[in-house]
């Protein structure tokens, strides 16, 4: 029995078509927890640094292990769900996520915390593609699916932006490990609810699951991101520790693509990438996250270490971004139908770039209205871009490969995020460090230590004391703000590049439902087999791409 038929039967048995919105609520709660955990640690970084005393590289791993492992395993678990059941994979992911949260909360060394964050990445990789692929199965009509994706992306934004607020509250009132403990009761609740309410959904069951291909994809993504991460941490371009994983990852990904093209029953049908809409949507997701996720981590440090805000105040300052993202997600379906994917994604990039450029006016002193305006534009623009890109990508994919397509989208998101932290972190370090390494009146070892991060510079300045310590603290603050401005300009350039890339998307939102005033579908340049193309629930024709 096909995945769509199975899902439809369970939904009808549970109370008719309206039950799909109940399923959406459960999926959104699942996504909320995963998105929350991606950012809840950000405001706790200073507290983790003070308690566990990680090195600069260990601190990067504490932050990066979650998205890195998650990104490398998304294709594996997304395609596994297509074969053996998306609901089954999702429920196992719940259990792993809860267990890893307990380990992270009780970690006493940087190594244990890094390991727990990696295990959280395994759970997240099982949860994220399953939520999106189940959504694809229970919402076959594109207009309803666009509305559901709008809610889904808004919830993701709420989770990511609420993380710093919740994390700030917990760090101020408890200890940094409490940011992980909140996952345990929520997972204990969502696991039985999900088992009871969620429909099982599968894709095509033809042929064996390509275990070797899945491992090649995981190793390729892991190697590529690890190499970029080490370059971002300061490794030289000829350093074998950075270039080795990068080259190995590229080779494994190339072999994976070659293997999938030759297999009769591939994990992922590579012909999807020949469609301009699908490949462009994936590229836009990568560029959006590449430009902004690393910037978010730097911005949190700016609010706490330069402006002197508490973790809770830092989280509250980011709330306007949350509300703007919610507004963009809530209106996304209407906007996409009226202006089409091309203008929606392109203008979202442009608006986000304008917000980033506005934030270059940040300086040594607090300017609340500037920050609020910038964050509102940032949240609305980014969410508009991601909504249009995700909807276009998912609608282009055949329903029996929804898990693989969702995994590609989430891999793009996580890959862009991990690369963004490495790339923008590298830009930030390159602009920040030079002024501190040869500072007159400060010992060379102290200046070298201070060049690692602003937080470490403050610790070194406190140990030095006197005029030398004050000079080091002041120079570090000014250098950090200078580095932030340079990073913002690089980020704006990446966003404008994304706006140009979006010009390859369709002008209009095509759909085949007879009740909608949409243009007739155009045949794509490269067609998938007819048996794998999605059909609208109305039965009036194939879904247009």
Protein architecture, described:
- The protein has 545 residues and is an all-alpha fold.
- Helices cover 75% and strands 0% of the residues.
- It has helices at 3-13, 19-39, 45-52, 56-84, 86-105, 110-138, 142-173, 178-181, 183-197, 211-232, 240-262, 276-306, 311-317, 319-358, 368-396, 402-432, 434-437, 444-450, 454-464, 466-501.
- The chain is globular.
- Residues 1-18 and 512-545 have low confidence and may be disordered.
Silhouette = globular
Structural class: mainly alpha
**Overall pLDDT, averaged?**
78
Cα-atom Rg, whole angstroms?
23 Å
Describe the oligomeric state of these chains in a short phrase: single chain
What string, H for helix and E for strand, traces the elements in order?
Answer: HHHHHHHHHHHHHHHHHHHH
Strand runs, count: 0
Measured by DSSP, the beta-strand proportion falls in under 5%
Which range best describes the helical content: under 10%, 10-25%, 25-40%, 40-55%, 55-70% or over 70%?
A: over 70%
Largest sheet: none
Our count of helices gives 20
First-to-last CA distance? 26 Å
Low-confidence stretches: 1-18, 512-545
Quick rundown:
The protein is mainly α and 545 residues long.
Essential attributes:
single chain, 545 residues, mainly alpha, 20 helices, globular, disordered N terminus, disordered C terminus
